[in-house]
Predict the 3D structure of the following.
Amino acid sequence: MTKPIDNPDFISIMLLTRGRPDAFIQMLASLARTAKRKDLIDLWAYVDDDDPTVEELRSLDLGSLAGFAVNFLARPRPVTHGEAFNELWRGTATNAGIYLAVADDYVMETRHWDESIRQSFAAYPDRLVLGRVQDPHLPNMLLIMAMTGEWINELGYLVPPYFPYWFGDRWMEEITRLAQRLIYLDVQMKQNGGKGRTQRMRNLPFWTDFFCETFQERVETAKRLRGRIYDPESHDGRLAEMMASELELKFWEQDLDWKRRDIQWLEESNADPEEASNPPSLSYMKAELQARAHLSWLEGQGLLASQVRAEAQSMPPKTPLPTPA
């Protein structure tokens, strides 16, 4: 799916929220307090239709508080967080040129953050770019993202739809860096309170394997983006391909390194113990079944990362070109 872009400078803020009306209002107030062009902003929130706090939020005149439109999309609890973000993107009516994906447990710290994002993206005429909003507590992770409508149209999603927890940020970082279009925005948000345990975390060994085996998807997506960004015969195009080849090897080793960690300890240290002690939810089971079906399809196509890497290693080395006399 692709969406039209009515105004390249219009920013739609995308977020998921459940059961935290106070945090939501604090996040909204911080965005409104620091924005410069509120006439070029709106907000879309995905809320679960069984969340009892939704009506409390809807009863408030949040648009007047913020100075821009605040919209709610009430749906059944999503199978994955990524799919909820994607449904928001598909369902927004403003056809924005820029999308800012945030969480309700953050607050904005940067004055005129919206104008800073617009100016950063304006430096890229093709507008195929994704920007990382800075989190001082986790400075090396792509947790809060701003991206253009053109970027999302090219990928076909705002966030990868597969994962019920974790991994989506790493997925996006690998693609953007392989395409050489990850930029660091001069915009900072900070966590509003401490980070709790990870909701819906279970079977981390499977999701680690799934992330590694889908590596070739990220490689091919980035290759398609580079084809749109660079002339492959130009100096920049050849340099981009050389850098991407080096990064592919680096990312593959980093992804495999995840599998060498003490995955069981990671899960026990991060999962919500009460939730983990209960049977998995229907939405979680759907996510894992869909992921397993996707792996089966990739295997049938010979596109599992382990298959692709094994085939590459089995090929004879290329014969070097003869040295001119």
Summary: Residues 204-314 form one domain.
